[in-house]
Specification:
Shape: globular
CATH superfamily of the largest domain: Divalent-metal-dependent TIM barrel enzymes
Strand order of the largest sheet: 5-6-7-8-10-12-13-14
Order of helices and strands: EEEEHEHHEHHEHEEHEEHEHHEHEHHHHH
Bound molecules: D-xylose, nickel (II) ion
CATH architecture of the largest domain: Alpha-Beta Barrel
Number of helices: 16
Helix content: 40-55%
Radius of gyration: 24 Å
CATH class of the largest domain: Alpha Beta
Mean pLDDT: 97
Number of strands: 14
Largest sheet: 8 strands, parallel, barrel
Number of domains: 2
Structural class: alpha/beta
Strand content: 5-15%
CATH topology of the largest domain: TIM Barrel
């Protein structure tokens, strides 16, 4: 259990340590399923998930939208001095994170301190807030899951960062990445993320896609080489997303990113950071994206959230659908877990969720739904015929000519001969409804 770390001022007053109380508890501020030391399939829940709090949504997201002003009025924004304000915000962040007993956090450079248009000033600010963060981490035991640079908000990135047609902009993006990697290394960050919000295009009429993608790959190589040279041992993640803010983003989905990494010889250092709402925007289920990454040995980390079935954008709501999360946990457990990463709540409370308790309910619900889903998925895998039913569908490839085919020993002519000799195949049920019922039986 992390110890609560407060600054000089307590920001979340009247809220103490959130604890596990079990399913009989009626306390809305207690975990009912997330019991960090409970062992599931050989690992504690804490190790399976490595839950992380996303700095940007929780401590910067003001609730402002294109139609309205901020609704989340943060007390820590009162100071007019940027570093003072950053420190107060960090006090609030660590108070929240430790009260929630979340073991990790994630940030973009500009989440932890305001950036300017002056590179040297920015580097000074980043260094100062890194020293403060390091102290907070040491006091609390909270760790950095990943760091990243925001290469999409500043107006200079309107035509892209690493894929910008103007080399000068690319150099500024590199400068930010260097400082964010330095901070990540200094803070013992376990991974480093690239999400390319503007790495894509708005119109093909003005875009040389081939050249932009080549620049992107070269940028990633250059950043990776710098980090490795400076002792970074962690994994780099790419976070796929199909669109928004770009009309088309080059990191469209898991398959696309894996193909890109393979083409540009980056597979050795990079894995995927998959986000639920990005999967659904790409027209996939999250389970699909997880399976694609797991099959390629590239399941690195998760940005947990959910979209809205009636909306077509990244609404970043906290996860709460048990069926969806159980299906994701089936993939997680069957594939041996996340490689290096954890479960970062890249999710925000709604604009009209204005009680300070709302942030607690949101994370609590998210952590509990994952824990509950993990327990259910584990039971399905150990106490049901789920795996057997799936593998039996492929039994014809386990022996005889099917196995020969898998070993590349059959020609097209031999396949024809087999078809003639064996006549019309018997229909084999996919048993979809049986399996859907099986999942619900365990829920
Ligand atoms: C936006 C992305 C972003 C990344 C980090 O849609 O999810 O939050 O996770 O840059
Ligand atoms: Ni994300
Ligand atoms: Ni997102």
């Amino acid at each position: 259990m992390a110890k609560i770390i407060k600054g000089q001022q307590e920001f979340f007053k009247g809220i103490g340590q959130i604890k596990f109380e079990g399913t009989d508890s009626q306390n809305p501020l207690a975990f009912r399923w997330y019991n960090e030391n409970q062992i599931v399939s050989g690992k504690t829940m804490k190790e399976h998930f490595k839950f992380a709090c996303a700095y940007w949504h929780s401590f910067n997201g003001s609730g402002a939208d294109p139609f309205g002003e901020p609704t989340h009025i943060f007390e820590w924004n009162k100071s007019s001095d940027p570093l003072e304000r950053a420190k107060l915000k960090m006090d609030a962040a660590f108070e929240f994170i430790t009260k929630m007993n979340i073991p990790y956090y994630c940030f973009h450079d500009c989440d932890i301190v305001d950036l300017t248009n002056d590179v040297l000033e920015n580097e000074k600010r980043m260094k100062a807030i890194t020293i403060y963060a390091k102290q907070k981490q040491q006091e609390s035991g909270v760790k950095l899951l990943w760091g990243t640079a925001n290469l999409f908000s500043n107006k200079r990135y309107m035509n892209g960062a690493a894929t910008n047609p103007d080399f000068h902009v690319l150099a500024h993006a590199a400068t930010q990445v260097k400082a964010a990697i330095d901070a990540t290394i200094e803070l013992g960050g376990e991974n480093y993320v690239f999400w390319g919000g503007r790495e894509g295009y708005m119109s093909l009429l003005n875009t040389n896609m081939k050249r932009e993608k080549e620049h992107f790959a070269k940028f990633l190589h250059t950043a990776k080489d710098y980090a490795r040279k400076n002792g970074f041992k962690g994994t780099f993640f790419i976070e796929p997303k199909p669109c928004e803010p770009s009309k088309h983003q080059y990191d469209y989905d898991a398959e696309t990113v894996i193909g890109f990494l393979r083409q540009y010889n980056l597979l050795g250092d990079f894995k995927l950071n998959l986000e639920v709402n990005h999967a659904t925007l790409a027209g996939h289920t999250f389970q699909h994206e997880m399976q694609v990454a797991a099959d390629a040995g590239m399941l690195g980390s998760i940005d947990a959230n959910r979209g809205d079935n009636q909306n077509g954008w990244d609404t970043d709501q906290f996860p709460n659908n048990i069926n969806d999360v159980v299906e994701a946990m089936l993939v997680l457990l069957s594939s041996g877990g996340l490689q290096g990463g954890g479960i970062n709540f890249d999710a925000k409370i709604r604009r009209n969720s204005t009680d300070s308790l709302d942030l607690f309910y949101a994370h609590l619900g998210g952590m509990d739904i994952f824990a509950r889903a993990l327990l259910i998925a584990d039971k399905i895998l150990t106490n049901s015929d789920y795996h057997v039913t799936r593998s039996q569908r492929y039994a014809s490839f386990d022996q005889g000519k099917g196995a020969e085919f898998e070993k590349s020993n059959l020609t097209l002519d031999e396949l024809r001969t087999y078809a003639i000799e064996n006549g019309e195949p018997k229909l084999q049920s996919g048993k979809q409804e049986y399996l859907e019922n099986l999942i619900n039986r365990f829920i």
